[in-house]
């Protein structure tokens, strides 16, 4: 996978995460407590997985032994941690020599099973994993009054490059 595509996917992830966070912040906590709790739980899982894979990419100790926690952080904390993850991923990928994209990283999944992925696969996994959980959050946003933002890659790429809307 070319580095330019990976970088664009990571920009997309950051953009989509920000749109989702803004929509979650609009949930009326009094009227839709279950939907807000579900959205926060999904964000918590996303953040924890990103923090674990970030440590694997950096070769540092993994910060979590589970993909969820008993106590779900506040939305503000989750937003800060997700923003920090996105803020780390893009410069990391941009500075990564092309020959290291295919480097295999061996690790243990948090369930104890062995795993290995290339650096490029890990970066793709984080983009894809976020998309999956933003989709689940989208259902909660629908239930909480139709707050779901349009966050597909096609919306992103045309927002970032309006010239693509010009008919040929």
CATH-defined topology = Four Helix Bundle (Hemerythrin (Met), subunit A)
Distance between the termini: 28 Å
Q: Which CATH class is shown? A: Mainly Alpha
CATH architectural label: Up-down Bundle
General shape: flat
The spatial strand order of the largest sheet comes to 1-2
Helix fraction, binned, reads: 55-70%
Sheet/helix structural class: mainly alpha
DSSP helical segment count = 5
Strand content: 5-15%
Q: What is the count of β-strands?
A: 2
Largest sheet, described in full? 2 strands, antiparallel
Total separate domains = 1
Q: Mean pLDDT, nearest integer? A: 94
CATH superfamily (homologous) name: dinb family like domain
Rounded to an integer in angstroms, the radius of gyration calculated over CA atoms is 17 Å
Low-confidence stretches: none
Q: Spell the H/E element sequence.
A: HHHEEHH
Write the layout of secondary structure elements.
Blueprint: H1 3-24, H2 33-58, H3 75-95, E1 104-108, E2 114-118, H4 119-143, H5 153-160
Helix pairs in contact: 1-3, 1-4, 2-3, 2-4
Pfam families: DinB
Protein name: Putative damage-inducible protein DinB
Family: Belongs to the DinB family.
Task: Note down, in words, how this protein is organized.
It is a single chain. The chain has 168 residues and is mainly α. It has one domain: dinb family like domain (Four Helix Bundle (Hemerythrin (Met), subunit A)). It is built from 5 helices and 2 strands, in the order αααββαα. The chain has a two-stranded antiparallel ribbon. A hairpin with a 5-residue loop joins strand 1 and strand 2. Helix 1 runs antiparallel to helix 3, helix 1 runs parallel beside helix 4 and helix 2 packs antiparallel against helix 4. This is Putative damage-inducible protein DinB. Keywords: Metal-binding. InterPro entries: DinB, DinB/YfiT-like. Belongs to the DinB family. One of its GO terms (molecular function) is metal ion binding.
């Amino acid at each position: 996978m070319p580095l330019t595509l990976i970088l664009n996917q990571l920009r997309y992830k950051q953009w989509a995460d920000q749109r989702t966070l803004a929509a979650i912040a609009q949930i009326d906590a009094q009227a839709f407590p279950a939907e807000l709790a579900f959205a926060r739980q999904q964000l918590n899982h996303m953040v924890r997985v990103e923090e674990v894979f970030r440590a694997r990419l950096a070769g540092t100790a993994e910060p979590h032994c589970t993909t969820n926690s008993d106590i779900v952080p506040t939305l503000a904390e989750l937003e800060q941690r997700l923003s920090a993850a996105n803020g780390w991923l893009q410069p990391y990928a941009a500075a990564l020599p092309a020959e290291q994209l295919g480097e295999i990283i061996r690790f243990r999944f948090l369930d104890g099973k062995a795993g290995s992925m290339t650096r490029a696969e890990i970066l793709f996994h984080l983009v894809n994993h976020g998309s999956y959980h933003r989709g689940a959050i989208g259902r909660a946003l629908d239930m909480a009054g139709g707050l779901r933002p349009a966050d597909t890659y096609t919306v992103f790429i045309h927002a970032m490059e309006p010239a693509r809307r010009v008919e040929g």
